[in-house]
Design goal:
Length: 269
């Protein structure tokens, strides 16, 4: 395999993902509506991380909005990873995946191209969300937009690899609804996306605290949160990098026709 062949494959897969994204104009809107609802509604009336009132004063409201932005960036990455893997299941049903996997390239290269293409779109959407946050008076220093880029890329790769692995075991598009209920929402709520974990421990919720600490999405959110302020969080970064490698290796194994789940679930033609 030559590097030029891998680069050509990555360009082809990326252009295909971008073309699909442009044609599905509601996809960008749907990916932004959910975090914007959390930003505008949840932060305003459901929780006050610094006080006891249900509806916090204006300044505290803005402070809490700033706090949950990293978690909302994480949910965008999580949602886009699911959408990318959903398209893989659809392609598998339509037969497109079979053509892709028969390309004269190693299986892991093809999956890496798919992962990088999906992550690129998710990172672009995150920056669109940061732009939309400006009218809500939720802003960061201009340099923070550059600081957060590595965190978004690594987190996007980790969450995309997770959904690649999950997509191996999903035979039909309709089954993704169950994956959302049992994977996406628990990962989001059992994390530090909406509230600091030390408040859970102070309140005696030790079980939820430790479950959240074992959640790789928690560490992705913390890495993004620290990077927005130009700081490096080594533990969170290490966890996210290791999780990315593990999920990608499991996905590669699953798509191996000789050993993985694809071989065990293949139907006669």
């Amino acid at each position: 395999m030559q590097l030029a062949h891998a680069a050509r494959a990555m360009r082809a897969v990326t252009m295909r993902e971008i073309t699909k994204f442009v044609q599905q104009r509601g996809r960008l809107l749907s990916s932004l509506v959910r975090p914007l609802m959390w930003l505008a509604v949840f932060a305003a009336g459901f929780y006050n991380v610094f006080g006891v009132s249900i509806i916090p004063p204006y300044k505290t409201y803005i402070t809490y909005q700033v706090y949950i932005v990293p978690g909302l960036l994480g949910i965008i990455l999580l949602f886009h990873g699911m959408q990318s893997s959903l398209s893989m299941v659809y392609d598998r049903e339509m037969g497109v995946m079979r053509l892709l996997l028969t390309a004269p390239l190693p299986r892991w290269v093809l999956l890496a191209c798919k992962l990088v293409a999906g992550t690129s779109l998710s990172v672009i959407t995150c920056y669109v969300f940061l732009l939309v946050c400006i009218p809500f008076d939720v802003t960061f220093e201009p340099i923070s937009w550059l600081y957060v880029l590595p965190g978004l890329i690594i987190s996007g790769l980790m969450l995309g690899a997770l959904w690649l692995f999950i997509a191996v075991y999903i035979k039909q598009v309709e089954n993704f609804a169950g994956a959302m209920n049992f994977v996406m929402f628990p990962m989001f709520f059992f994390s530090s996306a909406l509230y600091p974990l030390w408040r859970l421990r102070e309140g005696g919720s030790d079980i939820i605290y430790w479950v959240s600490m074992l959640n790789p999405f928690t560490h992705a959110v913390e890495m993004i949160r620290f990077s927005l302020y130009g700081m490096f969080e080594p533990v969170a970064t290490a966890v996210v990098v290791i999780a990315t490698i593990v999920f990608f290796m499991l996905a590669t194994y699953g798509y191996d026709p000789q050993r993985g789940m694809i071989r065990r679930t293949a139907q006669p033609v």
